[in-house]
Amino acid sequence: PGSTPRAAAVEQKESGPRVPVVVEHAGSDSIGIRLAFALKETFGKSVLFRLASGEEKKITLRVATKAEFTDRPGLASSWVAIWLFTEQSDVLGFYLESDLGFTNRDDLSDVALALASRTEEVAKRFSYLFE
Predict the structure, then answer these.
(1) Is the pLDDT score of 91 beyond 60?
(2) Residue whose C-alpha is closest to residue 123's, from 2, 15, 17
(3) Distance between CA atoms of residues 79 and 104, nearest Å
(4) With contact defined as beta carbons under 8 Å apart, do 79 and 64 qualify?
(5) Which of 42, 65, 94, 117 is the right S-S partner for 27, CB 3.0 to 4.6 Å?
(6) How many other C-beta atoms lie within 10 A of the C-beta of residue 5?
(7) DSSP state of 130
(8) What is the pLDDT of residues 110-128, one digit of tens each?
(9) How far apart are the first and last CA of the chain?
(10) Largest CA distance in the chain
């Protein structure tokens, strides 16, 4: 009583298990560093994900970035993202998917959200690995 079906669905979604994710970044360009931080922030605030800690089954999102133009390093960065399933730190991770693109300061949050959305798709497709 007093609860709508929509509110119950949101409550159930928030109380469900969140997928553990680790973001690993390689690169020293300022925009790439900001992208990695935006990704960690996005996953940390998400109701679908949580930042993993310790030895547990998780999705590892490896992001490598490089300045698009070496003579103008603050203009834009190229990035490559690789999704891995990692069971333990001493066990080789399993490749799941990859993507690449470009970003600048203006669209960092949009790229971070797009990568988080893609991570959700990957997590759904490979959810049997977490069982």
Answers:
(1) yes
(2) 17
(3) 11
(4) yes
(5) 65
(6) 7
(7) G
(8) 999 999 999 999 999 999 9
(9) 34
(10) 64
Measured CA distances, 17 to 13, 38, 48, 97, 131 (Å): 8, 22, 8, 22, 12
Cα–Cα–Cα angle for 94, 115, 120, nearest 5°? 65
Rounded Cα–Cα distance for residues 30 and 33 (Å): 5
Q: In which residue are the tokens 């680790």 written?
A: 22
The 10s digit of each residue's pLDDT in 9-43 is 444 444 568 999 999 999 999 999 999 999 999 99
Q: Are 60 and 93 in contact (CB under 8 A)?
A: yes
Contact 29, 66 (CB under 8 A): yes
Q: Cα 24 vs. chain centroid, distance in angstroms?
A: 9
**Residues 32 and 65 sit within 8 Å (Cβ to Cβ):** yes
Reading the block at residue 3, the tokens are: 């609860």
Report the DSSP beta bridge partners of residue 24.
62
Give pLDDT tens digits for 58-76: 999 999 999 988 887 788 9
